[in-house]
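Work Package 3 (structural annotation) set out to generate three-dimensional models for the target panel prioritized at the project kickoff. During this period the team completed the workflow that converts sequence records into discrete structure tokens, so that structures can be stored uniformly alongside our sequence database. As a representative example, we reproduce one entry of 246 residues exactly as it appears in the project archive.
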Amino acid sequence: METDIVATSETNQPESLADIKRKTKYSGTVIKTTLAGAVVDIGMDTPAVIHISQLQKEPTNRVEDVVTIGQTVDVWVKRVEPNRNRIELTMIEPLNLEWREINKGMTLKGKITRIENFGVFVDVGAERPGLVHISEITHDYIKTPNDVVKEDEEVEVQVLDVNRRRKQIKLSMKALEVKPAPEPKPAKRKKAVIEEEPSEPVPTAMEVAFREAMERSDNHEEQPSVQTRTKSVRTLKKWTIYLVGH
């Protein structure tokens, strides 16, 4: 983006054509008109020319409808060709920022021209305003852009992307802000571990029957007879057959 320098035909003139910069503003005098345009004296040895298409934004049929000889006009440098000793001017004020000058990551200042629910449009001096999506306005959560900005407010933005073919500029305000540190997460509570005493294994039905048989045998003070031992063995066999079958 080039600086808009204001000069007159009598002061602050460059010493050569190579010193003249694009978009520099001059105040000059019309010294000649033709069918193709006008010749303007801006204080250089080489007169500058204005094409008829650069006299105004609206279509022009006759040069004399816009300028006349001797008229003082404000002009901007459109192109300089030192090799051809030629200066081309325009009476249409150039954009502060041309499409070829817009690059991703550059920081710009602009004014909010329109506010929508999805974001805000910012005039950064280009042909069209850029869009700051609501998610790019601030790091904090907001319901609407009106919560933090207002129309005609001056803001600083960063270029996220530029589509020259579709003439779209994506901007961000929060990219220039310091990102807040994340809030610490609450510590998780540890679950109390209850130690359970090991339980004794539950005896099987066969073991229960065997223990009962043994207890009955031990309860006899005298040595049991052969008949008693035989009966106990039979009883144990019956329990065993019963349990196996079930």
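The two ends are 97 Å apart (CA to CA).
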